[in-house]
Inverse folding.
């Protein structure tokens, strides 16, 4: 594997996440660890079930470094499995419930998973091929011939801690970045990377009786970066199997939630709940946002009406450069994603790999203490992802375009692959989307490049109108283009009922583009 050699932080981690979880359970066994619906689990009970999971896996023949897959909605068994796999020395491989069966098949084959734990809700995604795989199959919450039963497996396992020795270089988790077509890329994180992320536990108050509400799926790094710090801090994780804006607010009020990680689409839905202001949200201390840029107007609304701090993280599942915007402390910088986090170095480069001058747009590359070990079994992909500076230090390419303002705050422009090249000119879809979203009748928007005989490709706007709006796409187009320079104008605007999004709120632009470019091939 190609060494990425992340920089050593000022206070390097000395304790694995596994060791701290073990210590927390011993320190306060009666404190609450997990809450999901009406089910509550103390730290002592959680620890015992982690041991049962670990011993059951070891009994199956799972050894250090083996990949163990999970396909489930958020649940207490999911949390038990996550920590139990680690305690057995295995590598947690959480699978996306948004992935197609073909992609899931490729992921399991790529990682050589030794076992898979599946919830009934998503069994249909693997039903067509799972019996043909050489791995242990466990049903989490249903009965099926040929699959072990989760609760029976745990009941037969020992509660003694197996005390598998772990090194910081050992594999922690494997997260697949492709859930649709093509060859899946497994992003491998080791124990060092996850332990290095724990430097944010105390500053963010995760170790101060925090009650963190998790409403994004546990297969996403977005979720994991709130889930693990809460447990590392000895606090309580509240799990939502499925996000609902009103139910979310009810849980915050009822449980006195102090911390949360949300993606931008969730913030918008929460703030749009008609009687949002009637909920008592005074317990909230810190709200985090990541996975996609949070619009400045939504940030302002959150600051005005939703108690607690608002912190936005910009970074990648692969790791590398991380930027942080403490929104409540920087009200004039809400259009940015903040400044590089301590110990992180972010540069901007052109297509030739040269750094661009201050103020100009370039591809974002970064390095920091939290960098992936590499793409699993794919040194070729890892090598393509790397940019090296004049001192041969490794930076990760983000594929995102951005610029630094005069105060060193990072302003995102677009994904490199989403940039539209029309008549030889670079058009950033994000710039056009902000114009469309500034229209009072538009509640959601995406701009994609579609084929053009005259220009190669041209920008097309896809918008969702607010309830009750009666304007046409042409009327939205006319207003938007009046604010755009001639070379950046939209070719058309189409109205949609909804825009396709992933479970963590990212607009699936590849899905939006596909029909237009497939027509071009026929």
């Amino acid at each position: 594997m190609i060494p990425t050699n992340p920089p050593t932080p000022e206070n390097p981690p000395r304790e694995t996440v596994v060791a701290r979880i073990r210590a927390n359970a011993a320190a306060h066994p009666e404190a609450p660890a997990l809450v999901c619906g009406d089910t509550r689990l103390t730290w002592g009970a959680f620890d015992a079930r982690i041991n049962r999971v670990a011993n059951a896996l070891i009994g199956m023949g799972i050894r250090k470094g083996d990949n163990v897959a999970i396909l489930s909605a958020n649940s207490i068994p999911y949390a038990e499995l996550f920590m139990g796999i680690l305690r057995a020395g295995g590598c947690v491989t959480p699978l996306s419930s948004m992935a197609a069966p073909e992609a899931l098949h490729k992921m399991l084959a790529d990682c050589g998973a030794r076992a898979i734990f599946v919830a009934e809700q998503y069994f249909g995604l693997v039903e067509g091929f799972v019996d043909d795989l050489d791995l242990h199959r466990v049903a989490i919450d249903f009965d099926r011939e040929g699959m072990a039963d989760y609760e029976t497996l745990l009941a037969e396992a020992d509660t003694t801690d197996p005390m598998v020795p772990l090194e910081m270089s050992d594999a922690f988790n494997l997260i697949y970045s492709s859930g649709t077509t093509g060859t899946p890329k497994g992003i491998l994180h080791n124990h060092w990377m996850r332990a290095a992320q724990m430097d944010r536990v105390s500053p963010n108050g995760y170790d101060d009786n925090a009650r963190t509400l998790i409403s994004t799926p546990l297969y996403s790094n977005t979720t994991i970066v709130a889930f693990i710090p809460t447990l590392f801090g000895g606090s309580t994780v509240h799990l939502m199997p499925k996000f609902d804006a009103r139910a979310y607010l009810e849980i915050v009020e009822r449980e006195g939630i102090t911390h949360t990680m949300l993606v931008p689409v969730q913030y918008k839905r929460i703030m749009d709940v008609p009687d949002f202001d009637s909920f008592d949200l005074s317990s909230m201390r810190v709200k985090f946002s990541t996975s996609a840029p949070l619009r400045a107007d939504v940030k302002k609304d959150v600051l005005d009406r939703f108690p607690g701090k608002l912190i936005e993280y910009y970074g990648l599942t692969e790791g590398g450069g991380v930027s942080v915007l403490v929104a409540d402390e920087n009200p004039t910088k809400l259009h940015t994603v903040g400044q590089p986090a301590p110990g992180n170095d972010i540069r901007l480069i052109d297509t030739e790999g040269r750094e661009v001058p201050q103020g100009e747009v370039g591809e974002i590359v970064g390095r920091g203490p939290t960098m992936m070990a590499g793409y699993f079994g794919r040194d070729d992909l890892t090598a393509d992802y790397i940019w090296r500076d004049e001192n041969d230090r490794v930076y990760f390419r983000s594929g995102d375009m951005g610029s630094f303002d005069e105060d060193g705050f990072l302003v995102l422009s677009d994904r490199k692959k989403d940039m539209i090249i029309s008549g030889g000119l670079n058009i950033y879809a994000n710039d056009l989307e902000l114009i469309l979203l500034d229209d009072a009748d538009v509640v959601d928007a995406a701009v994609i490049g579609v084929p053009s005989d005259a220009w190669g490709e041209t920008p097309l706007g896809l918008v969702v109108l607010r309830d009750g709006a009666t304007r046409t796409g042409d009327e939205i187009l006319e207003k938007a283009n009046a604010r755009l320079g001639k070379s950046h104008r939209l070719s058309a605007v189409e109205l949609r009922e909804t825009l396709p999004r992933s479970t963590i709120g990212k607009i699936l632009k590849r899905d939006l583009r596909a029909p237009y470019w497939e027509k071009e091939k026929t």
User: Anything to note?
Assistant: DSSP finds 14 helices and 27 strands in the chain. The chain has a mean pLDDT of 93. Residues 315-415 form a domain with the Luciferase; domain 3 fold (CATH 2.30.38.10).
